[in-house]
Amino acid sequence: MTPAAKLDFLGAAGEVTGSCYLVDTGQVKFLVECGMFQGGRDTERKNRRFAFDPADIAFVLLSHAHIDHSGLIPRLVALGFRGPVYATRATVELLGVMLPDSGYLQEKEAEWTNRRKFGRGERSGDTAPLYTVQQAVASLKRLLPVDYDAEVRPHESVRCTFRDAGHILGSAILEIALRSGGRQTRLVFSGDLGQPGHPIVRDPARVERADVLLVESTYGNRNHKNLAQTIDEFAYALNDTLASRRGNVVIPAFAVGRTQDMLYFIAELARQGRLGPMDVYVDSPMANAATRITLAHPELYDRGTARLAEWLKRGKGGPRVRFTEDVEDSMKINSVRSGAVILSASGMCDGGRIQHHLRYNLSRPECAIVFVGFQAAGTLGRRIVDGAKRVRILGEEVAVRAKVFTIGGLSAHADQAALVGWLKGFRAAPRQTWVVHGEPLSANALRDEIEQRLGWRVAVPDPRQSVEL
User: Fold this and answer.
1) What is the DSSP track for 396-411?
2) Is 95 buried (19+), middle (13-18) or exposed (0-12) by CB count in 10 A?
3) Is 311 inside any structural domain?
4) By the 8 A CB rule, do 456 and 431 touch?
5) 3-state SS of the chain: helix, strand, coil percent to 5?
6) Is the distance from CB of 22 to CB of 359 less than 8 angstroms?
7) What is the DSSP string of 60-91?
């Protein structure tokens, strides 16, 4: 007799990063997501050790390109995985940029760690990178693009359909039908759900039924400000810093999704005549590539973005946007003392070129740091948001004197009301709903809200918990 299908919560259980779920139908083992853990003290160990043999995994289903969902695919392949990774076409294109970039960061991080060890006289041997650029490039051969709403059959006992999640370009809700032990189980993974009305991408698709549902909870304990108020706050942060205090605005932004959103909002404010002259610097090779990919997929735009794109094509006064091409261009930005909006990755400030821009602007009271996305516990961005007076950046102590704005309403993640609104689209309660991808306060709050509002059976899984489907 075939044993019952099992689901193991190997990441994003009681935390936001490291999304990874192992499904074992008794006939085949596969992963939904293979994300990197980010922030916190234990991330190195968790990223290096899989709780399974990669060679046993038949295939991977990927919701979208963000590294906390995709970033361990190169390591999975390097350690023996030989199956396909299914993702939407836009996700595959984005990963062609993001995974090699992540490999480069892993090499640099290992190099930095070994320098520090050498400086302290440690003799424990060199630390190897989590994976290399070469391994990341090799893993791209495993990616298989699929279309929205088209069913794929990665195994005779598994069918999967990718629905638009409205989070970033190419993001998907995964509807998976499993056949195990003579039973059919409908398993739905929300992935990261977008906030309705968010620019560029369309609103999340409705899903009507599931036996077992996993829903994200990044903002499960709160609601965003309405978009009009949020845009007003963003316009104030820009005008107060650039026109009144004559400083620079530094915006830590994920290269994929958030950077393109911010360019949209700046262009829309300029179209409305609400911003003065400014130079916008996009300082991230990956963001530049992601922007090009976004521009190449107008068929995925919502209506408002399509209209704005037409206005920009007519050259009617959009902001001056400059994309840096190399490190020398990036370094030149450091000499700009006022009038600049600097968009740079990473979004949580834990690596990348944003750290250099923070080092040059964070201690200047005329400048502003504008946070427009979630800052996970343990990250540099979270410490600044929480009010640290001094932070360590690239080995230096830097005073925090710049004005700090946190504009949560721009998040591409659905807030509590939007999450519950999406769940109301189900015709009947799932047999079991699991709340994932949220810190404990957010996950538990969303669980309570679903139980009270919808009367569903809901739980927050423990890390590494295994359940029968």
Assistant:
1) EEEE--SEEEE-GGG-
2) buried
3) yes
4) no
5) 35, 25, 40
6) no
7) EE-----HHHHTTHHHHHHTT--S-EEEEHHH
Q: Which of 122, 126, 183, 124 is nearest to 157 (CA)?
A: 183
Count the domains in the chain: 2
142: DSSP letter: G
pLDDT at 17: 92
Between CA 121 and CA 256 the distance in angstroms is 39
CB 100 within 8 Å of CB 74: no
Neighbours of 258 (CB within 10 A): 25
Per-residue pLDDT reduced to its tens digit, 331-348: 999 999 999 999 998 889
Residues 197 and 285 placed together within one structural domain of the fold: no
| 123 CB-contact burial (10 Å; exposed 0-12 / middle 13-18 / buried 19+) | exposed
Give the C-alpha separation, 463 to 10, whole Å: 6
Residues 103 and 202 in one domain: yes
Q: Which residue has the tokens 């030989």?
A: 82
Q: CATH no. for residue 218?
A: 3.60.15.10
Q: Which domain holds residue 155?
A: 6-222+412-468
Taking alpha carbons only, the member of 338, 343, 417 closest to residue 373 is: 343
- Asked whether residue 1 is assigned to any structural domain, the reply reads no
- Could you give the residue ranges of the DSSP H alpha helices within 120-253? 133-139, 227-239
Question: Residue 375 — very low, low, confident or very high, per pLDDT cuts 50/70/90?
Answer: confident
1 has a pLDDT exceeding 60? no
Are 140 and 181 in the same domain? yes
- Residue 289 and residue 169 in contact, taking contact as beta carbons nearer than 8 Å: no
CATH of residue 284's domain is: 3.40.50.10890
The b-or-e profile of 342-373 (16+ CB within 10 A means b, else e) is bbbbbbbbbbbbbbbbbbbbbebebbbbbbbb
Say if residues 413 and 194 touch (Cβ distance below 8 Å). Answer: yes
Q: Are residues 429 and 452 in the same domain?
A: yes
Same domain, 120 and 200: yes
In a domain, 187, yes or no: yes
In this model, does residue 108 exceed pLDDT 80?
yes
- Residue 245 pLDDT: 94
C-beta of residue 88 within 8 angstroms of C-beta of residue 146: yes
Burial grade of 341 (CB within 10 A; 0-12, 13-18, 19 or more): buried
Spatial CB neighbours of 77, under 8 Å, sequence gap ≥ 6: 54, 135, 138, 139, 142
Longest dimension (CA), the chain: 73
Question: pTM, whole model, 2 decimals?
Answer: 0.86
On the 0-12 / 13-18 / 19+ scale of CB atoms within 10 A, 138 is middle
Distance between the two ends of the chain, CA-based, in angstroms? 16
Q: Looking at residue 124, what is its pLDDT?
A: 63
Q: What is the mean pLDDT of residues 269-289?
A: 91
